[in-house]
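Support request from a user on the community tier.

User writes: "When I paste my structure tokens into the form, the page sometimes reloads and wipes my input. The last time it worked, I copied everything first. Here is what I submitted, just in case something in the input itself triggers the reload:"
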């Protein structure tokens, strides 16, 4: 969402609140919002609490809040996602967000029909990911996109490849410098899906696409 004047932002917040609170539709095609102002967190909490009462096909959330606020809303959306979600883009732009125990497993557990998932700027990798396959979470995933900015984040790819038994394509946006090392590591990971295709894009290729 582009930067808004104070008056416009107030009008926007009031409009969204009115739509979510007064509209009794049980199903929405898409729920999309950028949570970027720490001054508006009361609105955000109200929106998410009302949003979780509905079913969705697509959820696209971008969090650019401070550490404590991002943590609170991440916890809230863990109970928001329900059975019908098919597509989800989940973006967290918080550089110092602490590991959130079982976050990804909770999200996947809440959305068993999820087929498309985007991880962008995921600077937390919780250890519960290693149990994804054993717990049966993520088996419906068919398309996953992951952005890698740190070598430690590569483990996310490993866990998803193991868990996603019907995965068709994983796109990896790689911003790491050692191309040969990262390619060797990524391509060596075992895949549970026999149909999975891994596509690795480096910065120059990302800009051209």
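"...and here is what came back when it finally went through:"
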């Amino acid at each position: 969402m582009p930067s808004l004047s104070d008056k416009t932002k107030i009008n926007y917040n009031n409009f969204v609140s009115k739509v979510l609170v007064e509209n009794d539709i049980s199903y929405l095609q898409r729920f999309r919002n950028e949570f970027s102002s720490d001054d508006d967190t009361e609105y955000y909490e109200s929106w998410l609490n009302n949003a979780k009462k509905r079913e969705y096909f697509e959820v696209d959330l971008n969090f650019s809040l401070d550490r404590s606020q991002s943590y609170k809303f991440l916890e809230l959306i863990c109970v928001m996602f329900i059975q019908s979600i098919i597509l989800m883009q989940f973006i967290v732009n918080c550089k110092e967000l602490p590991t959130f125990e079982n976050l990804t497993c909770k999200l996947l557990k809440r959305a068993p029909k999820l087929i498309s998932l985007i991880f962008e700027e995921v600077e937390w990798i919780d250890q519960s990911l290693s149990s994804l396959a054993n717990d049966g979470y993520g088996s419906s995933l068919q398309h996953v996109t992951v952005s890698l900015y740190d070598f430690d984040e590569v483990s996310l790819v490993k866990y998803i490849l193991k868990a996603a038994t019907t995965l068709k394509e994983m796109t990896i946006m790689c911003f790491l410098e050692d191309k040969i090392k990262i390619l060797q590591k990524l391509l060596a990971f075992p895949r549970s899906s026999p149909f999975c295709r891994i596509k690795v894009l480096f910065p120059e290729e990302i800009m051209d696409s």
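Agent notes: The reload is a front-end session timeout and is unrelated to the input. The longest strand covers residues 27-35. The chain has two domains: 1-98, 114-209. Escalated to web team.
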